[in-house]
Structure formats: structure tokens, C-alpha cells
């Protein structure tokens, strides 16, 4: 955290100095139609990458800004715009990410030397321009269609000695049986939470009790304080109380099915953000609740084996599974990587606990209930169905048509956008400072006869 703070602070100091001295020290690096790119634009964009520990090439940054300006200018011509709500959502997403890296909103504001409201106003124009450029890029390629013949042509042009090798892949479905406590079992921990709330209302220190008893590892060391956050930060039950109460008020004890029993205090409200602190009491999984989950899993497993229809596992997942992410798509587990979220998962990307189970199974097989521990340490019983297995192999159209189609589509999009830029830059006055004309990626971008030094 300290390292990040130093980086953010140095970025702030740099940007403040750049803003204060822009008139004296800034210069125009490029002119694109009726827009300009300043040296400070490049430096500040570079600083944003440095926050993420990424060290970009400034030639590439400059090319990116030039292409963005071209897209934004065309968006204005084509009457393409972005909604203010979408801009605010993107800004809020960025603020959440930066706050998490900094250790909370207060610390981020200290690093930036300004409030997040001020910072949001400062980056609003840049975020809007970035989103406009992306939307215009989508408009340019929205009518593209990759036909089966396009896929075959793309594949046939690939050098046969450099065809990609795809790792072994599997399709796996699951039914999850989470252990559930009875009302009497849960009431013990509801009362524990209520007792803590009563002690605080009688005068004991909230932060001291949160540090000692709260089972939220992220906030307990800070006395239960989670800083400022918006409505998208918390689970719905927490959000409902956090944004209902006034500053200083306490919520009653309430339950979140995924976490346990909460109560919270609102410390401050700032528009659509709220500063709260809370205490969480999480009931432990008992041996009895695990036994009940195991019994239910055994019953459903026997039903599946008895009804060996292709769609029965899917129906059972929808009816019995406690995993909200998979139960309504037949229990199918999606590949966590990639934009398409395909059901085909390379075995090296599969959860090791699942990999051990399916390694000895044949396609079409169903596992007996197995005890599973997730990343949060929570236990459940799961039944797995191995839908298909594809062994490691060189790419071919029969087995890998969807993947090759994705490659072909990406290639088609890139070529279409490149052609658009090649045409657009010939139609637009572009002037680039000699300092950046040496960049190979900017070769031939400047309008002929305009390669002299650009005057600030």
C-alpha cells in the first residue's frame, strides 16, 4: 500500500506542477483537425498508467491520443454521443478501483490532495472523450459479419507450421449444495450480534468492539470503518440500510445470506456516497449442517443416475443448486478468462479441486457428491457432470471453429479500423512535432509538407 501511495502522490505532485506551469512549459505535440494534443496530455496519461505499475511507450500513447481525436471528431459528424449516466458510471468504476488500491477513499483523497468530487470533475472530459472514441469504433465495425467462408479463408491463410496448439479442454457442469443452518442454530449468532449493538448503544466504543469481534477481515482492523462507497459496493441488504439511515444512526441487526449478521452506523453522507462502519458476525458451518447438505446431495445424485436423460442434470441444477451463477444455465461452469465466457475450459485453468474429480471421469459421467472448499474457505457438497473432453491438439476447423471464428472476427475488425484510419488521416490535417515524428508507429501520419516544428 505504501508503494502505491508514493506513486499516486508523485503523480499528483507532477500533475499539479504541470497544471501550474502549463502556460510556460507546455507545448503542442500534435494538431489533428481542430484538436490539439499537448505534452502535458501525454505525460498525464503516462502517469495514469504508472499508477497501475505499467510503463507504456510514449510513442504508442501519442498514437492512441491521435486516433482518439480522429474518432471523436467523426462521432460529432455522425451525431454519436454517450449518455451522462454512462460517463458517471465509468468514473465511479474508476474511483472504486483506485480507492481499493489506495486503501479507502480518505487515503486516496490524501494522496490526490483534493476531494474525489474535484477529481471526478477534472477527468470528466477525458472519460467522455474515451467513451466517445470507443462508441465510434464500434459504429465503424457494427455491420461486420464473419461468415463461415471468412473463417475458412482465415484458417487456410495461417502458416501450417505455426498453427496454435490448444490445451486439453473440458466442459463441466455442477450442482452445489451449501450447508444451511436451522433457525435455532442461526439465532445464537443473531443474538451475539444484537448483544454487541446493545453494548455500543450503552456507550462502549464501536471501533474497539469491531476490532475485537467483527469477522470482516477487510474492515475489522480499521474498527469496522469501510470509508466512503457508493451503492454498487455492498451486498443489497447492506446497501438498503446504508442509504436509508441518517448520519449517526444505527441499523438494526440484519442478515445477508452470503455473509451472516450485520449492523452498521452511518457516519457521513456525500451525495450518492456514504461513509459507514459495521460489525459482521458470520455463523460457522456446523457438522450437522454439512451432514444435511451431504444427504441432499446424495438424494439428488441418485435421482440423476436413475434418470439418465441428457437434460435431467440441467433441470436438477436449476431446481436444486445453490450457486446462482450456474444454476440457470444448466449448471455449466464458464471459463473465467476471455471475453466470450465459453463453457470450454482449459484444464490448466480449471479449479484444482474440480480437475482432480473430472480427471478420472469419461465424457457423460456424473461424479458422486464431493466436499468442496471455495476461495473464501466455505465448504459445500458438489456433484459434477463432465459434458465433453477435448484433448490437446493443433488447431483445426472441425474442433475449433468457434475459436478460429473469434480470431477471424478480431482480424476483420482490426483491418477495418486500420483502413478507416488510413483514409481518415489523409482527409484530416495532422501536424506532429519533430520530437515524435521519429516514432515508427507515427510514420506517415503527418500531412505532407507540414513536418516543421509545431509552435506552442
Helix/strand class: alpha+beta
What kind of sheet is the major sheet?
Answer: 4 strands, antiparallel
CATH topology of the largest domain: Triger factor/SurA peptide-binding fold
Could you tell me the radius of gyration in angstroms? 28 Å
Principal-axis shape equals: flat
CATH superfamily of the largest domain: Porin chaperone SurA, peptide-binding domain
**What is the β-strand count?**
13
List keywords for this structure.
456 residues; flat; four-stranded antiparallel beta sheet; 3 domains; Chitinase A, domain 3; alpha+beta; 49% helix; Triger factor/SurA peptide-binding fold; disordered N terminus
Description:
There is one protein chain. With 456 residues, this protein is an alpha+beta fold. It folds into 3 domains: 2-144 and 414-442, Porin chaperone SurA, peptide-binding domain (Triger factor/SurA peptide-binding fold); 168-180 and 286-391, Chitinase A, domain 3; 183-281, Chitinase A, domain 3. It has 16 helices and 13 strands. The protein has helices at 2-20, 22-25, 39-51, 58-77, 84-102, 105-112, 116-141, 148-157, 183-201, 206-213, 236-242, 287-306, 312-320, 352-358, 397-427, 434-437, and strands at residues 28-32, 35-38, 165-166, 169-177, 225-229, 254-256, 260-270, 273-281, 345-346, 370-373, 379-390, 393-394, 430-432. The strands form 4 sheets. It has a 4-stranded antiparallel sheet with strand order 9-4-11-10. A 4-stranded antiparallel sheet has the order 5-8-7-6. The protein has a 3-stranded antiparallel sheet with strand order 2-1-13. Helix 1 (2-20) packs across helix 6. The radius of gyration is 28 Å and the shape is flat. It starts with a helix and ends in a 19-residue tail after the last helix. Mean pLDDT is 86; it is low at 1-24 and 450-456.
Amino acid at each position: 500500500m505504501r508503494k502505491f501511495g508514493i506513486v499516486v502522490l508523485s503523480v499528483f505532485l507532477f500533475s499539479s506542477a504541470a497544471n501550474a506551469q502549463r502556460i510556460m512549459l507546455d507545448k503542442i505535440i500534435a494538431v489533428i483537425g481542430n484538436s490539439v494534443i499537448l505534452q502535458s496530455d501525454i505525460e498525464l496519461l503516462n502517469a495514469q498508467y504508472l499508477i497501475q505499475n505499467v510503463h507504456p511507450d510514449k510513442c504508442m500513447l501519442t498514437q492512441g491520443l491521435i486516433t482518439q481525436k480522429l474518432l471523436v471528431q467523426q462521432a460529432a459528424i455522425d451525431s454519436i454521443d454517450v449518455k451522462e449516466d454512462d460517463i458517471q458510471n465509468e468514473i465511479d468504476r474508476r474511483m472504486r478501483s483506485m480507492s481499493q488500491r489506495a486503501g479507502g477513499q480518505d487515503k486516496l483523497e490524501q494522496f490526490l490532495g483534493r476531494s474525489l468530487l474535484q477529481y471526478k470533475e477534472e477527468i470528466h472530459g477525458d472519460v467522455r472523450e474515451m467513451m466517445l472514441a470507443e462508441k465510434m469504433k464500434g459504429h465503424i465495425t457494427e455491420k461486420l459479419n464473419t461468415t463461415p467462408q471468412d473463417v475458412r479463408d482465415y484458417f487456410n491463410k495461417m502458416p501450417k507450421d505455426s498453427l496454435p496448439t490448444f490445451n486439453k479442454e473440458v466442459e463441466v457442469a455442477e450442482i452445489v449444495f451449501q450447508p444451511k443452518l436451522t433457525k435455532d442454530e442461526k439465532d445464537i449468532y443473531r443474538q451475539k450480534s444484537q448483544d454487541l449493538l446493545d453494548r455500543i448503544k450503552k456507550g462502549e466504543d464501536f471501533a474497539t468492539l469491531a476490532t475485537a469481534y467483527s469477522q470482516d477481515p477487510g474492515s475489522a482492523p480499521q474498527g469496522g470503518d469501510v470509508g466512503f462507497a457508493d451503492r454498487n459496493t455492498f451486498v443489497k441488504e447492506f446497501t438498503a440500510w446504508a442509504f436509508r439511515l441518517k448520519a449517526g444512526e444505527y441499523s438494526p441487526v440484519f442478515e445477508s445470506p452470503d455473509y451472516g449478521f450485520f449492523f452498521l452506523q452511518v457516519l457521513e453522507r456525500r451525495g450518492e456516497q456514504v461513509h459507514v462502519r459495521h460489525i459482521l458476525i458470520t455463523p460457522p458451518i456446523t457438522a450437522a449442517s454439512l451432514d444435511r447438505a451431504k444427504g441432499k446431495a446424495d438424494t439428488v445424485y441418485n435421482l440423476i443416475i436413475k434418470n439418465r436423460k441428457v437434460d435431467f442434470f440441467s433441470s436438477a441444477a436449476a431446481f436444486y443448486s445453490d450457486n446462482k451463477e450456474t444454476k440457470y444455465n444448466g449448471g455449466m461452469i464458464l471459463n473465467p478468462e476471455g471475453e466470450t465466457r465459453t463453457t470450454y475450459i482449459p484444464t490448466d485453468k480449471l479449479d484444482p479441486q474440480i480437475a482432480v474429480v473430472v480427471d478420472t471421469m469419461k465424457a457423460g459421467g456424473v461424479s458422486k457428491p464431493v466436499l468442496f472448499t471455495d476461495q473464501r474457505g466455505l465448504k459445500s457438497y458438489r456433484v459434477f457432470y463432465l459434458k465433453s473432453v477435448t484433448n490437446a491438439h493443433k488447431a483445426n476447423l472441425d474442433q475449433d471453429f468457434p475459436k478460429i471464428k473469434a480470431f477471424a472476427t478480431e482480424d476483420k475488425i482490426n483491418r477495418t479500423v486500420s483502413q478507416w484510419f488510413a483514409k481518415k488521416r489523409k482527409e484530416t490535417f495532422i501536424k506532429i512535432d519533430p520530437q515524435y515524428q521519429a516514432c515508427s508507429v507515427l510514420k506517415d501520419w503527418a500531412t505532407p509538407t507540414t513536418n516543421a516544428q509545431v509552435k506552442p
